[in-house]
Every structure is written in C-alpha cells, then in structure tokens.
Amino acid sequence: MTTKLLPIINETENIQRAFIQIISPHHTQIFQIDELSVLGRDYNCQILLDDSFVSNRHARITHKDRSYCIQDLRSRNGTFVNGTRILEAQLKDKDRIQIGKQELIFSLEIEEKPTQLGLTSRNKTWNQQLENLPHMAQKDFPVLITGASGTGKEILAKMIHRYSQRSYGPFVSVNCSALSENLVESELFGHIKGSFTGAEQNRKGAFESARNGTLFLDEIGDLPLSLQPKLLRALENSEIKPVGSDSSILTDVRIIAATHNTLSQKVNQEKFRQDLFYRLNVLKITPPPLKERMEDFENFLYFFGKQYRVAFSFSAIQRLKEHEWPGNIRELKNFVARASALYNKTIVQEDCLDLLLDKNLPVLDSIEKITTENMNLKDVEKILICRALIKNHGNQRKSANQLGLPKSTLNDRIKNYKIDIDQLLQEGSRLNL
C-alpha cells in the first residue's frame, strides 16, 4: 500500500495513514482506519469479521495525537497483539493482531502526500492519462487497467480507491489467475455451509468483503469462461448468489479490473465474453512499459534508492537507461533492492552492474531447442516449466495440467528454480516464444 506512483513531487505535506490487512489465503482485504474503527461480527462495525469466534463488537481502534490504540470490548475470546492478550495497547507498524480465528496486520504509513493530487509524468502521453485519474476516482464506474506486468496496475487501482468516495471502505484484491476453476466462484461470491466438500461454515466472498469499498479483479483475462456470465449478472444487477444458496445478496462495490492480456483479442478468440468486456471497459487506463517512459526513470531510481538507502554514480545511471527493463517498474525496484543488499549506504559504480542486473533467464534462448548436450535433468525440467508458463501466459493451473504435475508441485518447482514469472513472460514475448 505504501508505494507511490512517482517519487518526486514539488510541494508536499506529511500525511499519516493506518491500515488493517486481513490475512486470507486467496484474496487480500485492506481497511483504512478512521478516527474510530470497531471490529466485530455486527454489520454496523467498520471492520466486519465473519467468524463465529469473534464477538459482535469485539475490539476498537482509536486514533488520537498521531498514535493508534486498540482496546478489547469485553470480548468472549479476547484480543491478542503479537501473541499477548491485551485489554488495551498502543499499536506499532507491522503489529499482528489475533481476533477469534482472524489474523490481521496493522500498518502505519507516513506519506509525503502531494498538497494536490500530484500524479504527473514527464512523458506527455502518459501524463495526459494521469490527469484524468482524479476524475476517474470520483466516479463509481468500473475501471479497466491494461498493460504489461510490472507497470504498476495494482498501484494505480489502490490510488483510484484512495482518492475515491469509497476510500474509507475496504480495498479487496483477487488474483483471478491464481485460483483453481472450482474455487473462483466461492472466492468471489462466497458459499454456505455444506454446499460442497470442505465447506464447514458460511463464508463471505470478495464481493461481500469489499462492501462499501473497491473490488480489484487482477488478471481478469484468466477468469474461467464458465464463470463470466455470473460475474456479468453480478455487475448488471448489483447482486450475487453464494454457492449453495437459493437467495441473492445485494452488493455495493466499485469494480476495478486489470489484465496483461489484450481482452479485445480474447473476445475475438471467444475466450472472453464480449458483453462482459464492454461492461468492464467503461473507464480505461493503460500504464506504458518503463522503456516507453524513460523520462521518469531517474525519478523512480531516486525514489527506490532513497527507500533502500543506496545511490548510483552518473555513469551507472546512464548505462541503466540502456537496459530494456522487460520486467518494468517491478524489475527496477527488485534491482535496487539487490543493490542495497550488496552495496548498502554506498554509491554503486558502473562496474558493479553486471553482478546486479538479473541474469536469471539463461534458458530462454534455448526454450524451443531442448537438447541433452551439457544439460542435466534439472535444466531440462526448468526449460519445460518455463515453456509451459509462457504458452499458458503464466497460468500455473493450466501449466501444471499440461506438464502432468499437481499445481502444488509446480509451485514448489517455480520457487526452487527461482523463476520470476512476470519477467519470464516479458522476456518470452521479446523473443517471440
């Protein structure tokens, strides 16, 4: 939540914000804390926790004199901060809160917020899009964010939410490509107890978790075709039906969707519904690749360098500008983080760059030319995994099926081989693989 779009803004003031993030295996819920936020099962609570071990009004967080305090409201099962049961405690950044079976993280952000919404770029074309962002934020229409991986689509979604009239509601993010087809419907719409094997209690989906806030559907292009009509009905009628339920629930969310795919092309290929595409594509913004906005490169480098306490010489910066940056802003941020780990609080010289620039894709040029010469079994396995991921646009479930592996095994292999999927897709596109 804390990464700003652009680092250099002329006129700023320090703004303190606090957030509560609810830990969930499949989607992220983030609530901004107001002057007083009550947590509990009651629908009047500012932060609603759907958990039978949570009291109706379980705890409250108050903001006074630039500090945040959590107080237990005589709950049945108690409130815990960093493993210790408390009646009242002052909260610090990254404190972990346990309420019932819910695990939450408190985060404190001190932001140099522009006195006016200073979303600007030195790239004229991109700057024109950014100038429209405040107007987009104030409207409640769906927004479609398209662009390559690593260009900051989720950051844009969070900024639209932050400056919208729903900013004090939750921001809920769901990665549509990370869920198996049989779980997506439950994650989006929820389910009732006993509706399928493993449904041991009623569960709210992302639409209900995001009530009065923003629902961010990342990689919407990977949403299963069978589920798209149900999402369309939810958007058209502002109502959902949990899995196994006979009754509908009215919704109140603002939808922001993002994809690295060209949805119009998927519509032509009959892999994405045309009516859903038009329903999502009301307002649109497309962040360009970093190599097409190099006017902002030094600003980003300065910002990340300040964040990680590392600086670069003039000659190093000039050479970095010649790099393709296929992973875009995300790759640049990771690069600066590596530089910080090796050259913390020093000036990185040009002769250090070969060590720092990510060379973790040596197999790509040979992906379509697998041979056993000078290659062990792990090399071959890594190449096959990379080729499957590129072919399936990073979708791990489809890649696992193609390779004949359980999805969990594929996920372990990706971690073991340190495969950066976003960078793999960018590099694979560059090589036309």
Protein architecture, described:
This protein is α/β, with parallel strands linked by helices and 433 residues long. The chain is built from 16 helices and 20 strands. The strands form four sheets. It has an eleven-stranded mixed beta sheet with strand order 8-7-10-11-1-2-13-14-17-12-18. Strands 4-3-5-6-9 form a five-stranded mixed beta sheet, with no helix packed on it. A hairpin with an 8-residue loop joins strand 15 (239-240) and strand 16. The longest helix is centred in the last third of the chain and has 16 residues, at 328-343. The two termini are 34 Å apart. 35% of the residues are buried.
Give descriptors for this structure:
16 helices, about 425 residues, disordered N terminus, alpha/beta, 20 strands, eleven-stranded mixed β-sheet, five-stranded mixed β-sheet, single chain
Topology:
Elements: E1 12-22, E2 27-32, E3 36-40, E4 47-48, E5 59-64, E6 67-72, E7 79-81, E8 84-86, E9 88-91, E10 95-99, E11 102-114, H1 124-131, H2 133-138, E12 143-146, H3 153-162, E13 171-175, H4 181-189, H5 206-209, E14 214-218, H6 228-237, E15 239-240, E16 249-250, E17 254-259, H7 263-268, H8 274-280, E18 283-285, H9 297-308, E19 311-312, H10 314-320, H11 328-343, E20 347-348, H12 353-356, H13 377-391, H14 396-403, H15 407-416, H16 421-430
Parallel strand pairs: 3-4, 12-17, 12-18, 13-14, 14-17, 19-20
Antiparallel strand pairs: 1-2, 1-11, 2-13, 3-5, 5-6, 6-9, 7-8, 7-10, 10-11, 15-16
Helix pairs in contact: 9-11, 13-14, 14-15
